[in-house]
Amino acid sequence: MAETVTIHEKPLRHFCEQVLMKLGVPAEDARVTTDVLVVADLRGIDSHGVARLGRYVSGLKEGFMKPTDQSRMIKETKATALLDGGQSLGQVVGTRAMNLAIRKAKDTAVGVVAVRNSNHYGIAGYYAMMGLPHNLIGVSMTNAAPLVVPTFGRISVLGTNPISLAAPAMNEKAFVLDMATATVPRGKVEVYNRAGKPIPHGWAVDETGRSSTDPARVLNALAKRLGGGLLPLGGEGEDLGGHKGYGLALLVDVLSGVLSGAATGLQVYADEKRPDVGHFFLALDPGAFRPLDEFRRDMDRLARELKDSPKAQGQERIYVHGEKSFVRMEKFRNEGIPLDPRVVQALKKIGTDLSVTWAS
Amino acid sequence: MAETVTIHEKPLRHFCEQVLMKLGVPAEDARVTTDVLVVADLRGIDSHGVARLGRYVSGLKEGFMKPTDQSRMIKETKATALLDGGQSLGQVVGTRAMNLAIRKAKDTAVGVVAVRNSNHYGIAGYYAMMGLPHNLIGVSMTNAAPLVVPTFGRISVLGTNPISLAAPAMNEKAFVLDMATATVPRGKVEVYNRAGKPIPHGWAVDETGRSSTDPARVLNALAKRLGGGLLPLGGEGEDLGGHKGYGLALLVDVLSGVLSGAATGLQVYADEKRPDVGHFFLALDPGAFRPLDEFRRDMDRLARELKDSPKAQGQERIYVHGEKSFVRMEKFRNEGIPLDPRVVQALKKIGTDLSVTWAS
């Protein structure tokens, strides 16, 4: 693989915002959408970072993503709300929905907001973390295009349906779990394919529905819609708990898709002109249960207990979720964000097409 | 293994209730505690069924489980509550807490109840399913004695910390996910040990913190507190997503332990006289988001879509979570509950000690 190109956060943000604004996205919505993408890169989740800008550009050009916020309230109670996303940018709708959940949590200790008729919203963790400055626990989930094969199945029916929960700590970093419910993302199968390496059992199945170590076969079966796809966390069958990962993916679809009335399972992205993605957001005030400082101190204690516990042979460190990303974020903020040269090339092409100057 | 002994539900319930009442548990609390145990057996989760009665008998005799309900409200808002379990039976406190969450959900569309200072509460699914007759989505989690080794760790710091979510359907069975966040329960390692069979990689680590296929070594290391324990869902290291299972176990401890102010991590059961287990309960009204019948119909549609989707080579059926257990429940209700003869022997011994007639 070619060496990465390092770009500083500020010009990268400026470029993405300009691109989105050229396509009719208002400045503040362009800022929010860009923020979700750049924060993904800063946290090291480059699969969900600016590398995806092209998809949003296509979506806006083709019209199935609306440049201005078309979301509207469908039903509301003191503690809950249902939004129709109006096919707006997932990041704009997601941010609005999580802000609403936060406002409700400040009012009633807990807020739950479901969203239907939205688009891909980026990293789930972004929304969960929005609760942190308010000292709230944040939860965020979304369904996604089918890519995961249910236990004993042969075709992908569920998305990689991520779950994120963020909880504030005191001196330790906040706990930020942000995980897809598949064992690995498709991107990882693609990396092994390019390297000509076999993938481990437990990552994916081919068109027979059986675990395969051949990434080319898996990707080919997916591309030609012959079947196969990613395995849920826990891998093939039930021996290593694959049915649990499958259950978590389904849980996410129940809360994101069924609860909101969005598309679910095979229906997500079935209509390319209306992906009808569903999201779920929850904010919870720990201060409604115990003094906030006690909660935050105990978060620290638990994190320290895990990190200080004895290490496995050959290992030097135990991590708490989110920790690696916070370290990466600080480093990338100072030193710039390393981008794959192919991503930079694609971004430059977008810039040329839309007459936006590439900014480094 | 010797053949199982089949006992009908009714006499089994009667026996357990009598035993509990002999130890000072009021009739209604004995009924509830027994119900949680017998429902576990009926659903086929025999590790959490009447086989555990002995532990409750010991707890009550030794005094760290209180026979009468000592739980009390510590803090309450319209949508949330914190209960101190007062070291009462986990089933009694759990039922009270979930009923409270249900009442709140009927009032404010969502209810969240955290519990500290409780005891082992049986299967998480029992409480999540309590929402079903009310057409509510139910969620239940609990922390537990340390048995799971964090990714890159060498000793168990977290419990098998289960997550359960139940959601009502229309004509299909309700979706009931009820899963420990470890790959397998300790009982499964014990079964392989008794059979003299190696365990698969990804189930457990020995005292070096590395995945082991030797169940005797794993169990010995655990018994002698040398280290080792169960692996989180996803197995060893990060290759198959073990850090995700570890993150889920931690999420459960944050919501059950830290939120409530109960013990967390290594502190759970650290004081044998005060296990200080923490639970988390949530009830959510789908009717606050969309017409209830639409929600239930879409639950059916998603379940059917999964079950009707093509099967993997060599497989005949795709299940939706809870389905197997509902079938088993019907069968066992009609034909009786199959119990391990060693369990029956232990129950009879309890009966003899307390002058309660064994009832089959």
Provide the fold topology.
The structure is a homodimer of 360-residue chains.
Chain A: E1 5-7, H1 9-22, H2 27-42, H3 53-62, E2 72-76, E3 80-84, H4 90-108, E4 110-118, H5 124-129, E5 137-142, E6 163-167, E7 175-179, H6 186-195, E8 204-205, H7 215-223, E9 229-230, H8 242-258, E10 277-284, H9 292-308, H10 323-335, E11 337-339, H11 341-354
Q: How does this model look, in words?
A:
The structure is a homodimer of 360-residue chains. By secondary structure, the first copy, chain A, is an alpha+beta fold. Chain A folds into two domains: 5-183 and 231-290 and 325-354, Ribosomal Protein S8, Chain: A, domain 1, CATH 3.30.1370; 184-230, Hypothetical oxidoreductase yiak, domain 3 (Wheat Germ Agglutinin (Isolectin 2), domain 1). In chain A, 40% of the residues lie in helices and 15% in strands. Chain A is built from eleven helices and eleven strands. Chain A has helices at 9-22, 27-42, 53-62, 90-108, 124-129, 186-195, 215-223, 242-258, 292-308, 323-335, 341-354; strands at 5-7, 72-76, 80-84, 110-118, 137-142, 163-167, 175-179, 204-205, 229-230, 277-284, 337-339. In chain A, the strands form three sheets. A seven-stranded mixed β-sheet of chain A has the order 2-3-4-10-5-6-7. In chain A, strand 2 and strand 3 form a beta hairpin. In chain A, helix 1 crosses helix 2, helix 2 packs across helix 4 and helix 6 (186-195) crosses helix 7. The longest helix of chain A has 19 residues, at 90-108. Chain A is globular. The relative contact order of chain A is 0.17. The mean pLDDT of chain A is 97. At the A-B interface, strand 4, strand 7, helix 8 and helix 9 of A face strand 4, strand 7, helix 8 and helix 9 of B.
